[in-house]
Amino acid sequence: MPCLDISTNVNLDGINTDSIFSELTKAVSQIIGKPEKFVMILLKGSVTLTFGGNKEPAALAEIVSMGGINTEVKRKLIATLGSILENKLYIPRTRFVLKVFDTTMGRQNSKL
């Protein structure tokens, strides 16, 4: 089950987040190759967050998945999720950081 957890200093009050959740869910599902019904998205706004020493719009995200992660997938996730946040929340892609965790990395034969 991929889980994407996004924290941003952007205030989400008054923003229709339904389309953001929908786009993020579809993107994660397609890029990682897991069904949408297993994708979880958390989006937290108005978080005290600085990037580069200032409080301009920025976001930190973490994605955890049981398999499906490799270098190419990481690149696609960073580019695609960054574009969604830039288009929907006006967070420049240069102010978006993504941490990626594959819970099966390092295991020869995962039993999960």
Automatic annotation (TrEMBL):
Instruction: Give the matching InterPro entries.
Output: Macrophage_inhib_fac, Tautomerase/MIF_sf
Pfam families membership: MIF
Q: Name one GO molecular function term.
A: phenylpyruvate tautomerase activity
Q: Which domain of life is it from?
A: Eukaryota
Could you name the Gene Ontology cellular component terms for this entry?
Answer: extracellular space
Which family does the record claim for this protein? Answer: Belongs to the MIF family.
What is the protein name stated in its UniProt record?
Macrophage migration inhibitory factor homolog
Starting at the broadest rank, the lineage of the source organism is:
Eukaryota, Viridiplantae, Streptophyta, Embryophyta, Tracheophyta
